[in-house]
Design brief:
This protein is an alpha/beta fold. It has a domain at about 1-215: 4-Layer Sandwich (Metallo-beta-lactamase, Chain A), CATH 3.60.15. About 35% of the residues lie in helices and about 20% in strands. The chain has helices at about 40-50, 65-70, 85-100, 105-110, 175-185, 205-230, 235-240, 245, 260-275, and strands at about 1-5, 10-15, 20-25, 30-35, 60, 80-85, 120, 125, 130-135, 145-150, 155-165, 190-195, 200, 280, 290-295. A 7-stranded mixed β-sheet has the order 1-2-3-4-5-6-7, covered by helices on one side. A 6-stranded mixed β-sheet has the order 8-9-10-11-12-13, covered by helices on one side. Helix 5 runs antiparallel to helix 6, helix 6 (about 205-230) crosses helix 9 and helix 7 crosses helix 9. The protein is globular and about 60 Å long.
Length: about 300
Amino acid sequence: MIREIIPGVYTADHAVAEGKNAIVVGQRSVWAIDAGTYAHEGQEMADFIRSLGRTPDRLLYTHGHGDHALGSGAFRDAVEIVAHELMPVECRRLLPLLAVRAGKTPEELAAQIAWPTITFSHELTLDLGDRRLRLFPTPGHSQDGVSVLLEEEKLLIAGDAVVTGIVPAIGDGDSRILQATLERLAKREIEILVPGHGAVVYGRENVQDWLGWLAGYLRDVRAAVRQALDAGTPSAEIVEGIEYDRFVGDRLPKDRHGMPKRHANTVRKIIEEKATLPPPSLPQVGGGADPVPSPNWGGLGWGGSIVEEESR
């Protein structure tokens, strides 16, 4: 289902855990943001753009996971397809696993994806004429994660850096990085939050509440893991002991999206992180100045410049 959340900005549902794609309409161009898992999800977005009397010829990705990229076939002939420079790396890394799930070869799966024609490393600003999209890295869920900020509207299309329908997903990421990202996002003036999964959040106070809870969840689980490891508790017992009801409670419905299993997977990943050495620091996430921890994700290229889309 496609819904208008403010004039010219739409969310487009996809099937995975209340997933949210988006469409932003401007005077010069219309941008689809992510395309879902299945061909019909991306096709629905392309058809909707056509129903507005516009051409579906621009797509940008928040990251390269299958539930954001595999449905992009309707945009393979797009004039511009934008992503972080690590998105193709991340997507191709996952293709063998995704292909097994889909019953296809990696080559067949790769052929159905609209691959980026423009990549960036730091920030990118797209000028749509009457509005601008500011893209900046928000890693932690994945190494290639970016979010899209409509500054005048104070609207953030977060990708999976922010979720409101599930606990934070860090299977391919790092909880320390994601916590830093969430804390930095909380410093911004955001009035409308479009998460990667879950309901749209309206009002700065509600946005702050969600960002604070997500960061706090990761911080509290990490503290509990550290305490248990210091006490010599076996990993399996740690997972059982860091209970869903204590750390999530009624914040998220326990009976949806396999939530207890998702929580347990988060605990396991944080146990793995605690077994590694402290990560090095990178200068910033999303244009700030405070140091942020990062694992060894080479090639993030934090020194890039802002690039604007040329007038058409």
